[in-house]
Amino acid sequence: MSDLHALIRAELSEPVDPRVRDMASAIAALHPSSIAVLFYGSCLRESQLDGLMLDFYLIVSDYRQAYAKRWLATANRLIPPNVFPFAHEGLAAKYAVLSEADFGALMGVDASTVSVWARFAQPTRLVWTSGADVDDRMVSAISQAPRTVMSLAKPIAASADVITLWQTAFAETYKAELRAERGGRSTSIVDADPARYLAIGTATSVEPYGDADATWKRWRVLQQNGKLMSIVRLAKASLTFSGGIDYLAWKINRHAGTEIEVKPWQRRWPLLAAITLVPKLFRQGAIK
């Protein structure tokens, strides 16, 4: 086992609030082909979970088997992931669904967007699995995320310092999605646990993506793809995420300090609301 795999395995197995594991088990029970449930995001650092929105990824073996409705399987395959709200024993969450094949593919340097590898280069917990062999597969897949980060950061960073590489990569990933967070968020991710990022970055052995010009071109493609896919996924979420327009407003208000109020017509027509809300938020500078 490589040093990187050992670090990822240890991190995935760190303890979490028992209610998180209970919620993960309940999510897995909703989908017959569930393989693993991963807990990630800012709530990892919180001891008080009440009133927060927990973030999970559900990994399934097959989209068709995961859903009773064929259109949900088709949507997940064509525009991954599907995202759903969930509540369990007083806690609120959302969970995204990916097949194991898509999960692995979206970790690599050739992924069409940054959305998966950028998230799983950050701390994660494996909180439910269908069997012991799944652990090894999750460790292998997630270990690819820091390799992708380092590969795309090395040619463009101001120095080879490991922390600088992380900060450089996260700064670029934040340009590749619609973000509601204030400036400096990409740096604060690393500052929250520099020892963790130093250890994982040091253990990550990978060749640079290419020279600086080629790498900047790759980042521009990722950023163009990412903004487009963020809008497409937002529109799709209005169909798969009950109350999605309320969640979107809550998240933007929380991170950007805005005071968006959802109107009754926007709840009745969430797809139209999502499409009309995005340009307005761009003009106000709430998302970038």
How large is the radius of gyration? Answer: 19 Å
**Spatial gap, N to C terminus:** 40 Å
How is the CATH topology named?
A: Beta Polymerase, domain 2
Low-confidence stretches: none
Estimate the strand proportion. 5-15%
As laid out across the biggest beta sheet, the strand order is 3-4-2-1-5
CATH architecture: 2-Layer Sandwich
Q: Count every helix, treating DSSP H or I runs of 4 or more residues as helices.
A: 14
CATH class: Alpha Beta
Portion of residues within helices: 55-70%
Please give the structural blueprint.
Blueprint: H1 3-12, H2 18-29, E1 34-40, E2 53-60, H3 63-66, H4 70-78, E3 82-88, E4 91-99, H5 100-105, H6 115-120, E5 124-129, H7 132-153, H8 162-173, H9 185-191, H10 194-203, H11 212-240, H12 244-256, H13 264-268, H14 270-284
Parallel strand pairs: 2-4
Antiparallel strand pairs: 1-2, 1-5, 3-4
